[in-house]
Amino acid sequence: MTTLKEFEETLREHGMHMALAILAKLRERDKAKRSIAPARRITGRKMTPDLAHRILELHAATGMTQQEIAFELGVNQGRVNEVIKRGKWLTGDPNAPEAVTRDQALARARGGKGTPRRTRPAARSRPGRPIGEKGERHRRDQAQLTLGDL
Q1: How many other CB atoms are found less than 10 A from the CB of residue 2?
Q2: 79 CB burial (10 A radius; 0-12, 13-18, 19+)
Q3: Among 10, 23, 30, 58, which residue's CB has the most CB atoms within a 10 Å radius?
Q4: Where are the domains of the chain?
Q5: DSSP character for 19?
Q6: Could you tell me which of 67, 69, 13, 75 has the C-alpha nearest to residue 44?
Q7: pTM of this structure
């Protein structure tokens, strides 16, 4: 398959300057019409029990995929999966785990602190074990094969 660049080079080799001029004009026309469209992003709606029930209705009554349901209702496909597979968002309880994490994420997005995330506890060293002997006991217990054993 010939590329446009190869086509141009061939036109130049054969001295077809009029064809090159026409090609340049077409390029300019296309460049003038070209627009940079922003990426299409669906802003997610706040998940509510009503919306969760609507998701379940669409899932049960139609043959729509999770992605199609998400597009139809304007929600993230992951939320649709959570409702169908795990039954999340079906209650209006503000203390439900998913509602709490959503509120914390919204608070962080607004610049508020929310509740701090859990961090890993500091590594504890064993008493009486010098640094650098990590795994030494394990190595002592293993049998070692030498070349003379073969």
Answers
A1: 7
A2: buried
A3: 58
A4: 4-33, 49-109
A5: H
A6: 75
A7: 0.42
